[in-house]
């Protein structure tokens, strides 16, 4: 039997893992780490926001329903499906006597229908029994008026099937992740000679590390497309270079053969002339023979010089082709790391920021949720560079990026905007919440000193925060944040202003 670990030990290790992975200490993240260490299935996340919205839409009548709403709130906080079900049933039962019938209020059945229609597609359609129970529940909620007695039977049936469906989805997700890891690792094993390609494979493996989010999957898709594109271009150029090398080698061999034939012919002519000279008895007969020898020698010298030039040209072409291939791989390596990431801080660069901002704005328009962005600029950065040197300045930028990543949520995005400026995208965040988040980051920087040799250096920044407004472009929001940051600088630095 596997060794049973103490829950308190698992809890401590889960907290350590949260810190090691720089994850926000949310209940969902903690539960994922705890389940991973304890080898337990990581069930689907509890839909707390929709349930909160449902509870907020209920209008209690009387003290009994008010008490059941408090019970419902406690069940949501405790993430208890059974508690939510019991509280809703009791709330409905409390309304039955005053209405004279066991019917669910229309606004409640509508809210429940919207909730379940949004939640259940995440379970898929593989489990036929679970799908049938879901369809029966949705059909019961669509009936007006909705009879509570029928709904109670359907809910109890669904409650019995739900845990198995959740566990199955968690197992499917885990199996898919393992399969994806295996595929990526095998691709990497086939291309170990290409350093740029291996770097992309390492990036892909990092992208599929849990917790897995849509953002991670989107990043993984972009990286994989980069790998495929660069691999295709490198292969095509290598094939071209091989063909060029083959043609040059053929020309080289042909030229050697021609030189050999010319040398043989010249040798034969010299030998024939030597024999004729031996037979000459008069001086006047020697002149034509010497003229032929001189002419043959000149021809041979010209052909040798021409062959030497052609061979030298072939050699230059070989060297140029080889240099081109080396440069191609260098460019691919550079493109791999610089396509969307800043090589110094490992944050997104301007291109990566543009793509991330476009993606977040699309999500805002689709879900009608807030999006705030912050533009921060390190205070007195030029003075730091002049006093400690450019290497210390680079390390200060890396330090700021690392501290910012540790304070950010998994859904936030960090990008280097240029020089000592950074931008942080914060989805589902209002302007006030964005300002508070940047003030927290400033406090963390006062705790985490930057070390330059033996010197402790306090890094501060001025920031401007802007919340995207209706139909506003991302560049306009950045411009407003930049103006607010400038005002923060003018007000004394180490401040955060809202736009």
Automatic annotation (TrEMBL):
GO terms for molecular function: diguanylate cyclase activity. Residues 369-499 form the GGDEF domain. Pfam families: GGDEF (PF00990). Its EC number is 2.7.7.65. Gene3D superfamilies: 3.30.70.270. InterPro entries: Diguanylate_Cyclase, GGDEF_dom, Nucleotide_cyclase, Rev_trsase/Diguanyl_cyclase. SUPFAM superfamilies: Nucleotide cyclase. It comes from the Bacteria. It catalyses: 2 GTP = 3',3'-c-di-GMP + 2 diphosphate. NCBIfam families: GGDEF (TIGR00254). This is diguanylate cyclase. It comes from Azonexus hydrophilus.
């Amino acid at each position: 039997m596997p060794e049973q670990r103490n829950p308190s030990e698992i809890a401590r290790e889960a907290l350590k893992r949260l810190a090691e992975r720089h994850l926000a200490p949310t209940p969902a993240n903690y539960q994922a780490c705890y389940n991973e260490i304890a080898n337990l299935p990581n069930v689907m996340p509890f839909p707390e926001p929709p349930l909160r919205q449902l509870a907020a839409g209920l209008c209690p009548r009387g003290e009994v329903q008010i008490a059941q709403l408090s019970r419902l709130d406690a069940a949501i906080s405790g993430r208890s499906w059974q508690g939510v079900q019991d509280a809703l049933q009791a709330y409905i039962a409390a309304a039955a006597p005053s209405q004279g019938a066991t019917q669910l209020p229309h606004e409640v059945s509508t809210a429940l229908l919207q909730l379940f229609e949004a939640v259940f597609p995440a379970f898929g359609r593989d489990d036929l029994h679970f799908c049938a129970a879901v369809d029966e529940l949705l059909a019961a909620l669509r009936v007006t008026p909705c009879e509570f007695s029928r709904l109670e039977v359907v809910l109890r049936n669904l409650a019995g099937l739900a845990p198995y469906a959740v566990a199955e989805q968690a197992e499917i997700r885990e199996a898919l992740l393992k399969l994806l890891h295996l595929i990526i690792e095998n691709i990497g094993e086939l291309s170990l000679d290409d350093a740029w390609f291996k770097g992309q494979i390492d990036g892909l493996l990092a992208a599929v590390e849990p917790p897995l989010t849509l953002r991670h999957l989107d990043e993984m898709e972009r990286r994989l497309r980069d790998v495929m594109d660069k691999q295709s271009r490198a292969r095509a150029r290598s094939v071209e270079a091989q063909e060029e090398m083959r043609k040059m080698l053929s020309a080289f061999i042909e030229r050697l053969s021609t030189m050999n034939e010319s040398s043989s012919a010249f040798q034969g002519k010299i030998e024939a002339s030597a024999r004729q000279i031996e037979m000459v008895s008069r001086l006047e007969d020697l002149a034509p023979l010497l003229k032929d020898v001189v002419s043959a020698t000149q021809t041979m010298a010209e052909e040798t010089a021409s062959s030497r030039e052609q061979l030298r040209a072939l050699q230059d072409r070989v060297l140029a082709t080889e240099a081109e291939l080396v440069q191609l791989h260098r460019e691919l390596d550079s493109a791999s790391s610089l396509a969307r990431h800043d090589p110094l801080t490992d944050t997104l660069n301007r291109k990566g920021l543009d793509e991330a901002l476009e993606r977040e704005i699309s999500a805002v328009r689709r879900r009608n949720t807030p999006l705030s962005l912050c533009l921060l600029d390190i205070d007195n950065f030029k003075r730091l560079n002049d006093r400690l040197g450019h290497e210390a300045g680079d390390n200060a930028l890396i330090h700021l990026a690392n501290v910012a990543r540790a304070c950010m949520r998994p859904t936030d995005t960090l990008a280097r905007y240029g020089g000592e400026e950074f931008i942080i995208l914060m989805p589902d965040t209002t302007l006030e919440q964005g300002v508070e988040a940047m003030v927290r980051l400033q406090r963390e920087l006062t705790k985490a000193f930057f070390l330059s040799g033996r010197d402790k250096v306090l890094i501060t920044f001025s920031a401007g925060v802007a919340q995207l407004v209706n139909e506003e472009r991302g560049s306009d929001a950045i411009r407003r944040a930049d103006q607010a940051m400038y005002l923060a600088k003018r007000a004394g630095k180490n401040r955060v202003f809202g736009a």
